[in-house]
Every structure is written in C-alpha cells, then in structure tokens.
Amino acid sequence: MASKPLTTRVSPAVHEALTSLAARRRTSLAATAADLLSAAVADEDGTPPPPDGEMTAAVLRALGDVTVPAAVMYREIALQMARCIERDRHGAPGAARRLMEAADKALQIQNRADQPTDPTMSALLGGLFAGL
Q1: What 8-state DSSP symbol labels residue 47?
Q2: Per residue of the chain (132 residues), what is the pLDDT tens digit?
Q3: Quick one: DSSP state of residue 117?
Q4: What global pTM score does this model have?
Q5: What's the CA gap between 53 and 40, in Å, rounded?
Q6: Residue 41 backbone dihedrals phi, psi, to 5 degrees
Q7: Does the N terminus or the C terminus of the chain have fewer Cβ atoms within 10 A?
C-alpha cells in the first residue's frame, strides 16, 4: 500500500509512551506511530485491526535484535509481509517469498556489521515456509 509522510509534534509524555511501546513491539517509533494512527482511522465502526499471529511473532523473535538501520528496514518489510500472510490479504502467496528474502537480507546486513546474531534464525524462518 502506498504511504505518505506525516510530521507531527507530541508532548514528551506521549513520545515516551510511544518509544516504550515501540521497544516492546520491537519496531521502529515511526512504524509504531503509523500502526496506531492507521488503526485509529481505518475502521470507522471502531473495529480494531486483527491482532498479530504466530507468523509475526516468529519474525519478531528472529529479527527483533537487528540494529543496523538497513537491517531494521528489512525487518519492517518482513513484518508487513507476515501480517499480509496472516490476514490472507491479496498477494499473500507472493508475500511468503518476499518475507524470506527480507528476513535473509536483514540477517546478512546484520552479520556484515559484525554484531551478534543467531545463525539458526534463517533455518527457523525457512522451516516456517517449507510447505508454501
């Protein structure tokens, strides 16, 4: 889905709460704020978006510790692909391949930065998609 940039100012307390939530979710501050804003306006009837499932949880476990900015970008892509698969959105079959590519790229970038990562993460993600 196409997106547009948004800049806003919030109080220090709101910023702190968003930062804390982003850390707990292991996502960027921008992604957390975007998710919250999207959820607030997406459904006019007040229905919240579906919760994340096991696929998203597996991606967070596998890529939650990446810190190199480019690796974080690929982690966010992998999370969006996992949500697409879980919610059976149009294009979900293609998202599985893109999820694996994004996860592998995130781990490669992180490894090149000589920061500790778990080499079994690619195997874990590969096992998730063996049947697709």
Answers
A1: P
A2: 456 778 888 888 888 888 888 888 788 888 888 877 776 666 566 666 678 888 889 999 998 888 888 888 888 888 888 888 887 766 677 777 788 888 888 888 888 875 554 556 566 656 565 555
A3: -
A4: 0.49
A5: 20
A6: -110, -10
A7: N
